[in-house]
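Retro notes - structure team

What went well: the batch runner handled both jobs without manual restarts.
What didn't: labels got mixed up in the shared folder, which is why I'm recording both outputs here explicitly, each with its sequence directly above its tokens.

Job 1
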Amino acid sequence: MIAIGEFARLGQVSVRMLRHYDAIGLLTPHHVDPFTGYRFYSPEQLAVLNRIVALRGLGFGLEQIGVMIREDVTADALRSLLSSRRDDITLEHHRALRQLADVELRLLMIEKEHAMNDVDVVIKSLPAVRIACRTAVADSQPEIGPIVGPMFGEVAGVVARAGGIPRTPVAEYMADDDGRIHIVAGFAFDGDARSLVGGPLDGVEVRELPAVDEAACVVHLGSMETIGVSWQSLIQQLPARGVQPSGPGRELYVRAEPVDDQSQWVTELQQPVTAAS
């Protein structure tokens, strides 16, 4: 028999941890002295302790380990737990690589410019957005501004006359093979789409911009005249983060007032991305 202190030393765990394992039924001593309460373990239990330590090193929780070290555990159950943990580790690995790429990029910025870039890229998921909107096509980038502005005004008028409240403005942009930009512009809308039917303006519809698993996002402060610079900075930083554009980009106008002074505007640029091939 091995006293708890020696057993802890052999297994390279603390006595406190062994007592915890005993309390939760994960590894109970082979014998407990009824008079002193001293715990003793059999030499064979060292193999069980080593397995617990190894599984803890793989990131399994104690509840999962309890299942995995049971004598009646099936191979299918073990395979399922290990496969799930493999998927978790793979995801953690990808996140760590992305964080490493971000750190390397910022170090490069500092070395080249002696300062952090004003545009900070964050990769996050985007929820689906239901919007009342209009669509249009611009032949070139300079045409977007004159087209989009009136679109928002027209949609806002239809929503208001239908008894709704124009909420957060959203725009989506997608370039085709000919270089034309397809535009969807409108407002978040949670009302009845039928209320917009027969309104005074044609072409207003309700559609859902789908949820996005990963999007590279930056915040643009100020006028729409310089938003192209922020978009360019965002796109240029994607390769260093191991991702590439996937799908149409969005602009979420967090604050779009006062209308006559865009210096106070706050716009989040949202570019869906996938892992670079």
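Job 2
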Amino acid sequence: MDIKALRNETPGCKHVNHLNNAGAALMPQPVIDAVQNYFLEEANYGGYETAAKHEREVEQFYEASARLLGCKPTNIAFTTNATDSYDKALSALEFKEGDVVLLSKNDYPSNFISLLSIQKRIGIKLVEINNTDTGEIDLEDLEAKIKQYHPRLLSITHIPTSSGLVQPVNEIGNIVKNYDLLYLLDACQSIGQMEVDALSTQADFISGTFRKFLRGPRGSGILYASDKALTQGLSPLYLDMRGADWINEQHYKTRDDARRFELWEFSYANILGSKVAIEYALKLGMQNIWERNQHLTALLKTELAAAGMTLQDRGKVQSSIVTFTMPVKTTGEKVKKYLNDKGINVNFTSKSVAIIDFEEKGIDWAVRVSPHYYNTEEEIFSLVEALKEFI
């Protein structure tokens, strides 16, 4: 990669050392232009009229998304964020009292909350899969619990928001395909930093977002619905006239494709910005992005350890999210503010979003640093020096 050129194409690099890409990455100029130009045209010529003019570009979003996930355009829906995607997929299942949902101990907190809400309303049962010593879910325990509980759904978060752990999603899919259940994969933190091939995962639904490692606009998400899910007629609890046609006073007919999960009104500026973000990532190549990020995170971990930080990430494979605790008593808010004041963007993860994981680790919070390919080695060194000063 030509890192200098990529940074020149990223206006934010001139203002901040941005190491919070797991929160929201800096957008490259082509993405910014796509969103701003559309807003300007919409303001000058009207919303419906501008949408009609850019109809072909909107269709290209679904084509680009299909290339990104290795599927068909008919498997793609545009949403507002990953949780929106997850909840729409979840709402497509007609749960009844006593239904079992299997999930990992590292699932995203919003996913836990959504499932607990269904448990409160309907009386489903949530069963957690055990972890291995290295942090990933235990595949043997997964299969044993599928046989024991005959679950309706399996929920897996590919990369937790609270650590760099990467779950073996393809191996999970190879087990799940042999049983009668649905597989919902949260790929919020993985899409854009590593290859996510929908068919290889064998997931029935995949939720994702654009603001993180895809470097797209906020308020934009993606939902993959498999042919199996579509053929079974799964659709969101609340449809509108984009997802279905009103046939007569008492009946409607859903769309044949995944756009049944969309609503009539959404941000056309964001869908065009998201299209450009996908094309930008695909041009760089997912493998190139992964290798660059692995280089940056390896350097970061080495420097953090040498500076006295305690690394908290587990997993045989680890992503471009690095979490650590400090050798001095302080708070996440103080560390974040100190670094922000020096022009360095990081985040911290509190126990409230990783209750099970952090209880096992015996910690209440951790600093979260998430470099991306456009970051530099010098920015890594700058962060570590600032942490040494803080200590």
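One thing worth noting from job 2: The chain has two domains: 3-27+285-390, 29-283.
We'll revisit the folder naming next retro.
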